[in-house]
Structures are given as C-alpha cells and as structure tokens.
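Help!! Second protein's tokens look totally different from the first
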Amino acid sequence: MFRNIMTSVFIFSFTFLFTGGLNRLLSSEKIMENFTLSDYNGKKHTLQDYQNSKAIVVMFIATRCPVSNAYNERMNKIFADYESKGVTFLGINSNVLENVEEIKKHAEENKFKFAVLKDPDNVIADKFKATVTPEIYVLNSKFEILYHGRIDDSRREEEVKSQDLRKALDEVLTGKKVSVTETKAFGCTIKRAQK
C-alpha cells in the first residue's frame, strides 16, 4: 500500500515537472529574437524598432506566387484598416530567386504601403519556420507569437468565410486573448537557398 502511494506520488511529481518543463520549452519557442533586415531601398529595419506597436504583423510574401499575389489587395486593405490603430506590418520576401529589384518593382506595382524586407538565404524564414507564401505571424511587444497561419480561409476573396488575421488583430487590440492562435497557412513553398 505504502509502495503504491509512493509510486503514485513519484509519477505525479515526474509528470508535473516534465510537463512544466515542456510547457516552458514550448512557450520559449513562441518568442522571436530580434532581427534586422533591409527593405528594397536599402533601409534597415530591426524588429526592436517596432516594440512600441500594439501588434507586429510579419507577412512572408512573394512576387511570383499566384496565391500570395491573390492576397495583395487584401493585404493593402488590412494595412489601411489597422495601421492607424498602432499595428505595424512587415512584409518579408525569403525566396532565393526573387531579387531586390524584382521585389521593389512588385511592391510599387501593387502600391504596398508597408515595408517589404529581403531575407537573404532565408535566415529569418528559418527562424520563424515559415514554409509558404503568404504566411502570417502576429507578435506582441515582447515578440511573442500570438497568431500564426493564414490571412483568411480562401484564395478567392468572394469565398472567404473566416477572416482569421482580422479576428486575431481585433482580439489583440481589445485586450482579449487570441482565441484561435494557429491556422493552416496555404500557398507556394518558399524557395530556399542551398546551404
């Protein structure tokens, strides 16, 4: 009897310690470290520059991906609706085949008002574990990832039923916990550099 009680106490203690450690590990993986990238005009942007924002939206996008391009107008609309509310938007291009000149031309043609940064050798995409374009991350001022996934649930705007990014931002701005922290991003695979 005593042995059974001690075994139960040991198992409970081990489980508690293990899951506590695991939870700390998982939560630490959801905090991004500061990084610096240049935009297509050569201006450097550091994540820390935007730590006073109410939220930071990091968007992995592309110039040649038809799925990413289907979202260009929607990204502009979301930026227009939330930038004045203290939300920072950073586009990041990590595709090895898309150079700075191409990114600049694409941004100008699509009238992007948000900064588009070049991620040489997809270093930042690797840190975020981003795999497709478009793929979205919403961070708070401590660089904790509050939301990761898609902008919405359909490439065709007329078929959208779930405004996932907008919902997450609305919750952040009203001080609520983000109710859906992860959705499945879909799009073109990020073309990574050979390392």
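Here's the second one for comparison:
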Amino acid sequence: MGKRSKVSRLFLAPVLAFGLSGGGAFATEQSATQSACRLDQVELRGDWGQARFSIELADDEAERATGLMNREYMPKSAGMLFVYPEAKRVSFWMKNTLIPLDMIFIDSAGVVQKIHSNATPHDTTPILGGDGIKAVLEINGGLSRLMGIKPGSHIRHPAFANTSAAWPC
C-alpha cells in the first residue's frame, strides 16, 4: 500500500474527553477498547480523564524532518505523532512552523515524561525532550494545559509494544 494508507486522513476524529462512571462504564470501556490502537489516532488517559486525537504518523526521517511545518491551521482534534525506531534523546524546534504547538514527550512504555507548552512559531531555539523518548505528540498550543494532560499520563497507540506498554492495545 502507498503512503496514504500509513498517514491518517488528518483532522477527521473529534477530541473526546470522557470519564467512566456508573452502569455505563462497561459499554464505554468496551467501545474505547474496540476503537483503540489505530495508526491514525492516539488516546491519552490520566487522572484528568481521557482524550482521543486524529493524527498523522511521522515514523521515518523525512516525515519527522518536515513535521507540521508550513501549516496555517490544525483542528483541536488533530495532531502529529513522531515515532522513533528506538528511544533516544530528542529535541525539536519551530522553524517554519506557523502555529503554536504543545510537544508531549513520551517514553517506550507510552508514559508522558515531559510537556513543552505553547512552542513559539518560527523559533529555532532547541526544545529538549530528554533521554529515553520513543515518541512525541504535537497538538495545538495550550491544549495540554486546558485538558489537564500532564507527565505520568498514558498514551495508547500501536507504536508502543504491548508487552511493555503502560496502556496496551
């Protein structure tokens, strides 16, 4: 299959913030499990609740180098997941990036290690993610804080091995 099958139909799924409560918990949990672990979406959870983003996947050198550059708009329900073959020290910058972004740095188990909020468009100052980073989720600037996403939150996506994932598929 071509490149189009790997990259999502960006911006299609709404952001869902939901909690599990009462008698409907089983149905909600079952629905979340059935929709989980698609290449074109990520789910996050923490004591703040849960969220789902439609994503583009940047999992090769060329895609990671281009990222979200030169885009004038991104819906709140969308993002880009940068995935590396192995966990390592990573840093990003905002060169040629037109919109403010939150950068969520994630380890191999799918646990959020660091969040850089509201990265400034066009800024070439390195944004350090730290060591042992397997993936970086970029979403609209300020959205992490608004939703309550913080270090320790879990992410679910096929990029994180089921055997070591904090929230497996």
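Reply: Different proteins will give different token patterns, so don't panic. Residues 3-156 form a domain with the Jelly Rolls fold (CATH 2.60.120.1140).
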